[in-house]
Design brief:
By secondary structure, the chain is an alpha/beta fold. The protein has 13 helices and 11 strands.
Amino acid sequence: MILHQAKVEQAINSDDRGRFVKELCVARVRGGGGSEVPLAMIRKRSAEESGTRASVLLIHGYGQNRYAWHLPSRSLANYLAASNFDVYNLDLRGHGRSRHLGARRPADVSEFVREDIPAAVEEIQRLSGPRPVFLIGHSLGGLVSYAAAPSLGDAAGGVVSIGSPYHFCRGSWPLTLAGYVMLGLDRRVSLGHGALALKSWGEVVRLMRVFVESPVFPLPIRGFLPGSMEPAVLSQHMSLAMDSGSITVLRNMFLAAAEARQSGHRLGGLSGFAEDFEAMDRPLLVIAGTADDLAPPASVEPAYERSRSSDKTYRAFPQGHIDLIMGRGATRIIWPLIERWVTRRAA
């Protein structure tokens, strides 16, 4: 359902601007007893073109929202729309505009997989036609894409994952240690099922950017490579894209990582979906950042290695976690890579 439509002029990157048709769309997950979960998507198309090459669905990561893909001064969503794609930028339940419409935090990350993505794809095909939809996910959004794509059948055109840790925590001792601390604490004093206020951390980073990017910053995890983003871009991301994360989802991801060290468990906190993903024969592009302190290549590349897709690609770039989609280098290398890759598969 389209709630609002307008023509806008917005930035693609820096001084590069474009004119777009912007729509606020709502997909609805139908639950028991007639209840519904509203999911908000911002749809963008070029105002200069009459048709589009393909439909793409952007799926943000843990504790973020649709602004992960679209900032006032830099927007991958607008770049793809200007490249003649029909772009849908989704707020998962409990995040961004979906939360404002009444969609509460998930009880389990599998709700994203079983309900949110199928409902979003169904609405996209209703609005844009029955052609396949390409899923593009960052971080947890990539894992959700892996897990959801097999059940979509021919409705999934392919999957692009960016900084998505198939083996969560692998290659990162700080994350492994954080997991032990969180799980140990939770056994003694329940951490509950509330929200983790990542927006507050974003404000700290925004206000103390110079210190956070300096060599004397004491924490081993920043979430981005220092100097990879202009101050304005980093500030906008921390102010707009940082949202609230579910403590339940994070607990489950750390539990899965702990199990993985003993049993070989994979696909983040979505282990029950791993076998179907690995058997799926759909185009797959896996992108990792060699400086990513949240999802290092050791945790990302196994998705490519274990996939039996006849059309799969793995690429690694000298980027961190956030700057894989919003860094200077991303605009020159990763954005065009995604555009070319989807264009060829859509054709």
